[in-house]
Specification:
By secondary structure, the chain is an all-beta fold. The chain is built from no helices and 8 strands. GO terms for molecular function: ATP binding; DNA-binding transcription factor activity, RNA polymerase II-specific; RNA polymerase II cis-regulatory region sequence-specific DNA binding.
Length: about 90
């Protein structure tokens, strides 16, 4: 679980009610199992409450996030090596 809600902020006009999804993957696991990975756009913000990786889905690995906004045409953004999953949350740098 993340310490705060994960948010996607639209810089352009996206209608309220538009579905937004988040996927995570890497070379070893093309699609990690996520819970609560879709949200609905409201006032240009999609708020993902309780977004979490399920089980041992990529523990200790860096992931690329894929954010999909289901407008017409669909908008897709990728953020390479965006997150590293640990069992006990974020760690201080050594």
């Amino acid at each position: 679980t993340l310490p705060v809600a994960f948010k996607v902020v639209a810089l352009g006009d996206v209608p309220d009610g538009t579905v937004v999804t988040v996927m995570a993957g890497n070379d070893e696991n093309y699609s990690a199992e996520l819970r609560n990975a879709s949200a609905v756009m409201k006032n240009q913000v999609a708020r993902f409450n309780d977004l979490r990786f399920v089980g041992r889905s990529g523990r200790g690995k860096s992931f690329t996030l894929t954010i999909t906004v289901f407008t017409n045409p669909t908008q897709v953004a990728t953020y390479h090596r965006a997150i590293k999953v640990t069992v006990d949350g974020p760690r201080e740098p050594r």
